[in-house]
């Protein structure tokens, strides 16, 4: 990662008040970060520290999988009502927070691509890590249903616009919280061509990949689910998984066809510790 990208990452993470260090790292689970209430020196904050391990593709469109880990942090007033947070949400916090609607800044990381690591795509240009700051909105049609959308812009690895739309059905069974729902990922032409396009020069260097220009649109569709168990008021663990299938110009990319990687899976396990401060 270049020094410039590291500096940008630090600035975005500090602004979002939630660190992330994994490739394509999701942000949170269990509790959504909310804006602090007014007043200084009042009663405790509820702080949650998290650690998560993930098995996921090595990079955007990769066939091989890698294990990674990342920490997480959320802060809220003890009196704030519980709000659901999915493991694949971006890092963020709500500046507008009501029973039915939330909105605020969000950020994600997208992993680098080193073509020398994969023999079949050698000759392609390497892609640096990308930081993606943006905005999220959430809507709760019912107490058990959440619809969330994120719009972000890349800095570093790409300079395109990306979006994610998710819907979750949420059920609480005593100490268990279960969620499940569909996922949709989009990207503009700058993003899609960066990760799935092949220039004439790259095609000549590789020798087996045809030149290809990817247009913007729907990148993938899929589903995701999670199960959280509250062992005590302070400790909880979360297991989660997701399946995404590349579609549109991403699926038709010669990179994806060469790697046979249109189907992508993610599995993860996390632990969280909460305390008043």
TrEMBL record:
The keyword Membrane applies. It is found in: Cell outer membrane. It comes from the Bacteria. Belongs to the MipA/OmpV family. GO terms for cellular component: cell outer membrane. It holds the Pfam family MipA. Keywords: Cell outer membrane, Membrane, Signal. Residues 1-22 form the signal peptide. Its main location: membrane. This is MltA-interacting MipA family protein. InterPro entries: MipA.
